[in-house]
Amino acid sequence: MNLSKHYSLSNKTFVKALIITSIMCFNAACNNERKAESPKQTSELIAAPADLKVGEGFKSSIGYYESEPRFSWQIGEIAHSNFQSAYQVQVATTLNLLKEQPDLWDSKKVNSSSTSWVKYQGEPLTSRQKVYWRVRVWDEENQTSNWSDPQSIELGLLTNKDWQAKWIGHPDTKQANQPSKTTIATPQYFRKSFNINKDIEKARLYITSKGVFKPYINGKEVSKVDVMTPGWTPYSKRIETLTYDMTNKLTKGENTLASILAGGWFSARIADLKDTDHVHSPLLLAQLEIHFTDGSSQVVATDQSWKVTQNGPIRFASNYDGEHYSQALEQPNWNKNNFNSATWQSAYTQKIDPAIKLSPKRHAPIRVINELSPIKIINISKDSVVFDFGQNMVGVPEIEVPSVANQKIKVEFAEALHKGEFYTDNYRSALSTNYFTPSKSGLIKYKPTFTFHGYRYIKLSGFDSSKKPSKDWVKALVQHSDIKLYDNFNSSHTKLNQLFSNINWGLKSNFYDVPLDCPQRDERLGWTGDANAFVTPSMYMADAYGFWSAWLESMREEQTDNGKIPLYIPYVEWIKWTSSGWGDAATIIPWELYIMTGDESVLSDNYAMMKNWLNYHESQSNNHISNMQTFGDWLQPYPEAKGKKANRGDTDFSLIGTAFYARSVELTLNTAKVLNQHADIEQLTKLHQQIKTAFRDTFFDKNLIPKKGKPTQTAYLLALEFNLLEPAETKKAQHLLIELIEEADNHLRTGFLGTPLLASALQEAGRSDLVYQLLFKESYPSWFYSINNGATTTWERWNSYSLEDGFNPQGMNSLNHYAYGTISRWFYEGILGITPIKAGFKEFKVSPQFSYHLNQVGGTVQTTNGAIELDWSLEGDTASISLTVPKNSAAILDLDHLTNVTILQHGKPVTGQKKLTPGEYLIHGKI
Q1: Residue 31 predicted with pLDDT over 80
Q2: Which is catalytic among the residues 289, 523, 592, 869?
Q3: Which CATH architecture describes the domain 3-149?
Q4: Distance (Å, rounded) from C-alpha 22 to C-alpha 26?
Q5: Active site residue 523
Q6: Does 28 score more than 50 pLDDT?
Q7: Which pTM value belongs to this model?
Q8: What is the DSSP letter of 320?
Q9: What strands, in cross-sheet order, belong to the sheet with 915-916?
């Protein structure tokens, strides 16, 4: 038994009581709005709601994107109450009006337990508008809370008509001048000086680019941490804009706004499409709006008055191929006042295209999140040195290296050593190399601006060889989309903890504005199949809702008129067909996000896309049997086929397509029910049954042996997890699945499609012990196999690399893929045993799956109502569970696998209850 847990729980309760008492006393004495109320009313006040958010998790946001925000909050952790019975939301244009007479919206008292996704119902908000909001709630005894502290929202520029600015670029890059690829690949430097002669009330910079930009004000970076902005969207449909608060960055007198611009995803090549490399000309769009205390305003917008040059030190920039920097071309103070720009040219302008939507960015940009130092130096020679950071990651290095004038310094990257040697072949055509040419000898400091790399090792050459290499020559700046990582699972098993770390790093590395498949080679695309596998695990592990919602908007934009969903989002013309199990992201991801959050808007936003995808499925089927192309069970181990065909696994392609057709219909039907789309429910119900019947009759005989292709683990997993068999057949299918696993010496034989279904299907069959066996296997194919071979992220193949033989000779070996990290879902739903019964975890099941592989496990699941906390430990055959049920939630206990169960709350027995209300519990039982 974990005595420390008992101690912490009891003390936590005591501390909460003290805080509650203090807050109540403070509110009674200090809340001006309550002074006029009677003593009885004051004594009934409960603590104010907390953790106020808008949209997918924004707090006090500027540059917000929704004209009709969704409001969310939590019952205050220190409140006496456990449940909300009603709420009232108020929205106003000023803080004073918010307190006295809200002028935008007052929901009045709404009898509802909802604390999330409450939609604003006043007049739609407009560009630039700043509003304030607050909320109060009523508890289960109809007692009223204090008002929350007010929060603000400030909108960005919502429409193209809000922009006075024009797109600008260097005249030499103008398409009419038929620029060379070299010209387009050379970054552009822009500047504009202006005067301010009044006191500033507030200032906002609205900015974006066709390409990627780095802005400066008076010589300083507008943001030291934002990189590769604005990110990647379908540029022909929508470009995201960013908003920066410049109020305290401007001064009276002269000011200079400046920016560097490079091609990024807009004009540099995607994948290995060298014909499209640096063909489109990058452009910058910026609008600085300054509001003065006297009520007047000033706008500094990109136009022909801006100066531009391509004679800056960054000579080349590419996502895949790196950056080239020449110190001799540095122009000191180019982004400050009093700089002589006589040799610079006037920018050319281009009008804003009304067909391409400019809209505020709806999730946090890529940022420098932290930095790592090398753990060791290896392979030192006269000409080069290799630094090992001990962790595969994504970002750029910052170097501080002794140099020799005009001797080019070269920085190369690798994920792993191949038989002890520096190895870059798995990057394929991505050169992934930075060059710095010093103009003078001495110590130089440099970090790339417009590229990114996936790596663990750096090879440095061209430095002053008379100096001894030192670890402080380099550091790694880790970059990824700025989502909050929860770091919310731990156990008593070292390798299991390492696996969790590996999956976390895979998430961080590939959440690079869009969900990439890999971050290092000449691909780095938003593959839909990988996303299907990982969307739910990522939601358990991180605050990723805004990230996924934004990507779904791009998916909607990329869907073709006939309903096809491209293989990767955003789409560039490379692979023109789509795949079953990949395009089904159109239905799977919205539904999974809804289950995790309870936000119906993700369903309503994507419902048309879901139905259109079903139309495409129908066009690719005959008598409800799919003929759609597919990548199959991608990278299944030990396939029978040889060569490239082996990558697609052994499961019949038509079986896969039909199973996913049925699954997409089922999820669209579920969505229709949530959205009360009554006209669709009957038709979808009928269609689902027809596909289910066709699937059963076409692919399995009376003994459930596949009629097409060989029996595979994935064939049975699809049938079981997608509910395609009759209830009476489930046990038989489970038995056949387990037989196949046993024939494989209790190893998995699943690829990208089968692996996400494996743990859930076995747990449903009552064989969590077998999940543990698969999870803790040390030999190939298994998760621990990669750890035994030095993995610090999850791999593309089960056998991408070994310490003895190096990289797999089959090729296509990314050591930073998140698809097989899908097993982390079972860490929460299986090992911890927390699964949603109602969307958003308002009601959830608790059924930890115990194993003698572990003697202690702890973790949390973040929900819209608060954190579900669960720890369990084993001592002999006694299991001890500590559980925290967040307010406004209920836990349903499923502990049939335990005997002699006792439940304590506040040290007192809880009897005859399987449904637990909010609070902290200690549970014991025998396994």
Answers
A1: no
A2: 523
A3: Sandwich (2.60)
A4: 6
A5: yes
A6: no
A7: 0.94
A8: T
A9: 834-836, 843-846, 890-893, 915-916
